[in-house]
Amino acid sequence: MRVSIFAIAIGAIFAADDAAAEAPKNVAIEDAPALRDACGGVDGGLDKVARALVARRIAGLAAIDQSALVDLLRENGAPYVWPRAWVASARDEHALEAALAIWDRAEPAAGTRRCGVARARDASGSIVMAAVEVDALADLAPLAMHSHVGSWLTVDSRLLVSASAARAVLIEPGGTTRRLLSSFDAGHVLARFAPDRAGAFTVQVVADVDGGPRPVLEARIVADASPAEITSSDAVPGEKECGAQKGDAAFACILQSIRSQNHLDSLTRDARLDALARAHAHAMMTSNDVAHDAGDGDPTQRLDAAGIRATMVGENVAHAESVIGAARSLYASPSHRDNMLSRDFDRFGVAVVIAKDGSAWVVEELAGDAR
Fold first, then answer.
1. Alpha carbon distance 281, 289 (integer Å)
2. Cβ atoms within 10 Å, residue 179
3. What does residue 358 show for φ and ψ, rounded to 5 degrees?
């Protein structure tokens, strides 16, 4: 059985969305060596993100959501996936440092931990602290954030974890995806592409690690355009129309809308795939792990055990603060969008399981026969 890209995404729970507002840029950020010691290896790009979060807090702006947090990382050249952020204020600096340490320890490291930290004082004299953490699974060689149409760019990454395979996937202006010709040797991933039009390109490196394929790096390149010329929206196709529906129905509606907008045939919903998706969503929630194998086998093994025949199998999984949040996370990810837009699939199943904290564990099962 030939297997398509599975890949995974997390839309982490962060806070209310207010990404449109601008934070002041003249906040005096103080040095904070104790914070750096508390949260791990320092990263300059993450430091810049932490400074922006402190500035927003001092300006009284609402905390940003996960999508806007990722945008901040991309704007500051940090190519990591699945960032976490912490922002707090108090007059007692030691209490803040203790709270930061507790937050840091709450999430076990799944790679090489790196962080950015910042501290400043607001008008009342209270200390505002922010930290941004990632578990780095790969390093990316310098890659231009701005380029020109026709100029070749090299995606050169070195994995920090063991993997059996890796490749690069691209989202192009207009929303289409492209799998780049990639090489993988001894943890070194290499791919090249040349922007073929003006606009924003998102390139993602996906590696096959324990638990299944997952994104390990992501970068955004703008070709022959200024930030003001780049229009973007977190919304996914069909979000408004499908949002009135609940759970599984909403997610299924969004998937079909995504395909319709890209002039692709609708997929047939399969109750057997629904059942497999629901069982896997529960397995992920129970293990508190977003993975293609949460102790219940990988997607092909689960389909085989259920007696479902398919020559092409795909799966998207996510954990987010809401169904819409999960849909946005998957749609923004090149490898996940590539699954959604694939012509290799003709049927699907979907499940949304809501946890006690209100978050959504989501699974899309995709299947098709070779043509």
1. 10
2. 15
3. 90, -5
Question: Is 2 exposed, middle or buried (CB count within 10 Å of its CB: 0-12, 13-18, 19+)?
Answer: exposed
Say how far apart CA 222 and CA 198 lie, in whole Å: 8
How does pLDDT run across 63-76, given as a tens digit for each residue? 888 888 998 999 99
**Residue 326 · residue 320 · CB < 8 Å:** yes
Quick check: pTM over 0.90? no
In terms of C-beta density within 10 A (0-12 exposed, 13-18 middle, 19 or more buried), how is residue 102 classed? exposed
CB 66 within 8 A of CB 333: no
What is the DSSP secondary-structure string of 227-243? GGG----SPPTTHHHHT
Cβ atoms 164, 210 nearer than 8 A: no
How far apart (Å, rounded) are the C-alpha atoms in residues 368 and 371? 9
Q: What angle do CA 273, 314, 293 make, to 5 degrees?
A: 80
In the structure encoding, which two tokens stand for residue 129, read together?
Answer: 């602290």
Which residues, including other chains, have CB under 8 Å from residue 37's CB and lie 6 or more apart?
none
Indicate the burial class of 94 (C-beta count within 10 angstroms; 0-12, 13-18, 19 or more).
exposed
Looking at residue 251, its pLDDT comes to 93
3-state secondary structure (DSSP) of residue 107: coil
What pLDDT is attached to residue 43? 85
Identify the three-state secondary structure at position 36.
helix
Task: List the beta bridge partners of residue 140.
Answer: 157
Tens-digit pLDDT profile for residues 110-155: 788 898 988 999 889 899 999 999 999 999 999 999 999 999 999 9
